[in-house]
Amino acid sequence: FLAAGALRGEGAIILDKDGNRFCNELGTRDYVTGEMWKSGNGPFRLILNSACSSGIDWHCKHYVGRGVMKHVAHGKDLAREIGVSVSKLQSTFDEYNRVAKGNNDPNGRKFFNGIPWTVDDNFHVAVVTPVVHYTMGGLHINPDGACIDKSGKPIPGLFAAGEVTGGVHGKNRLGGSALLECVVFGRLSGQSAYNYVYSGSSSSGNNAVTITIELPSGVKTTIAIGGNGAVTGSASPAPAVAAPAASAPAAAPAAETKSASKEYTLEDVAKHNTEDDCWVAVNGQVLDVTSFLSDHPGGKMALLTFAGKDASEEFNMLHEKDVIDKYAPETVIGTLKGLASKL
Q1: What's the pTM value of the predicted model, to 2 decimals?
Q2: Are 18 and 84 in contact (CB under 8 A)?
Q3: Does pLDDT of 260 surpass 70?
């Protein structure tokens, strides 16, 4: 799960397995990753005290809900989580407070938030590790989004945008530049593709774009697109398939009756906590999301994390209230007993 850089920006510190700082936590991702590799003393933990957490409360709740971050009530719990003594942890905090006050951090950090740090506080903590989440290289494109060949010439009819391309970010990826490569170059390459189709080149010449698509019916359609919107095409028939012999309909197996007006307790919901049988409670409604797992835009793990549980808080952080009625009304099988639906 990709941790937002804002966590470090709000003042988080990163400690190794011995409870020591080893880098400037505000450095770029590639720098922090490099310092982790050089240290070799993981696992590494990103930690926010209560003051730092308050500035990014929504993210912390979201990560706790996803099971990738923990909230601990006191420094002794944090020390136990890391595997060091409380006195060692306080010593690390004392040293951090000292360099923050004198602005002389040996790791080069210049900005400090949440000072002072003390074990007499509550914390959010998460294990962090280097991970490849973006590749800087990719297809060479020109300012129009056209792909460039080895000789430096545009490849006729081939345009690209997004992470498949290279050279947009320079040395280090910036989050805002992702909008540049996706949105800006998406529009540019789309316009360029449109211009190419209506450019006037022959549909049968070297600049034609040929596309073959196999439809669900089995029919293969081939089209060649060239200038002036010229299109030539052909289609091959679908392979013949013998019709199955008619048979008497099988009796439907007995199943648990589910009605949107039925009431369930949280104990009832808790019994359905697997990928093959997954219920969640949301704002007083009970949802059977088993068949929806593969369709969930956020991935099935986002739902399975709350299998058999009440997911209201996490749901409300991320969704509009009408999203279930709009996109998955069939998942609603009832309401929580004694709790009216809030949707």
Answers
A1: 0.64
A2: yes
A3: no
> Which amino acids are annotated catalytic?
29
Q: What are 265's two structure tokens? A: 């307790």
Q: Give the mean model confidence (pLDDT) for residues 87-108.
A: 97
What is the pLDDT, as a whole number, of residue 338?
74
Kindly tell me if the per-residue pLDDT of 283 is higher than 70.
yes
Whether 255 is in a domain gets the answer no
Q: Which domain holds residue 143?
A: 139-197
Domain edge (last residue) among 106, 128, 150:
128
